[in-house]
Amino acid sequence: QNRQAQRFQQELHDALGELRGRRDEAARSTAHGHSFEAAVVTRVRELLRGSGEVVDEVGKTTGIKPHCKKGDAVVTLPPDSLAAGARIVFEMKEDASYTLRDSLDEIAEARENRQAGIGVFVHSKKTAHASVGSPLMRFGSDIVVVWDSEAESSDAYLQAALLMARALAVRARKLADELT
Fold first, then answer.
1. DSSP string computed for 112-175
2. How far is C-alpha 52 from the chain's CA centre?
């Protein structure tokens, strides 16, 4: 029994070491970014549950620009919305190298690539660059938010970004209707 217990302990120790190694490798590679993207999409779906909005993960497919995959998810407003069919593109990064300027450039390209009127760039709180000073900011048709996947209190910023994006979509539709 003692040998079995020692063997079990060694197997457990080896398995935990292997898991730590995989986790550390994922943190060094781009895999952690994919986990963050999945966490954002999951939370956005939860926040929009029952609203009629459709959330599509599109980050693995090209948009209208050849060879361009910018834009990780698109939220489409439902038929009963004042901005029915309006598209809101999300770009998510868990990457400390993305400055505020980089974020705004990337979300502008994502809006174009995914044919969306509104863009939301979500930074991970773990890696948000110092230039992203506030957890929620708006720049014209783009919103930059800092979200912590491990803190439920951070969901308020993500929810506020969604509400702002909807309001911007409605405003854009009303302006377009006034011009026609």
1. HHTT-SEEEEEEETTT--TT--SSEEEETTEEEEEE-TT-GGGHHHHHHHHHHHHHHHHHHHHH
2. 19
- Indicate the DSSP class of residue 22: H
127-133 LR contacts (CB < 8 Å, sep 24+):
127/93, 127/94, 127/95, 127/96, 128/96, 129/96, 129/97, 129/98, 129/99, 129/100, 129/102, 131/99, 131/100, 131/101, 132/99, 132/100, 132/103, 133/100
**Which amino acid makes up residue 51?**
S
Burial 68-97 (b: 16+ CB within 10 A, else e): eebbbbbbbbeeebebeebbbbbbbbbbee
Strands 54-57 and 73-76, bridge-based pairing = antiparallel
Mean pLDDT of the chain: 91
CA distance 154 to 86: 26
> pLDDT tens across 57-102, in order?
999 999 999 999 999 999 999 999 999 999 999 999 999 999 999 9
Q: Can you give the pLDDT at residue 32? A: 44
* pTM confidence score: 0.81
Rounded to an integer, what is the distance from CA 21 to the centroid of its chain?
A: 26
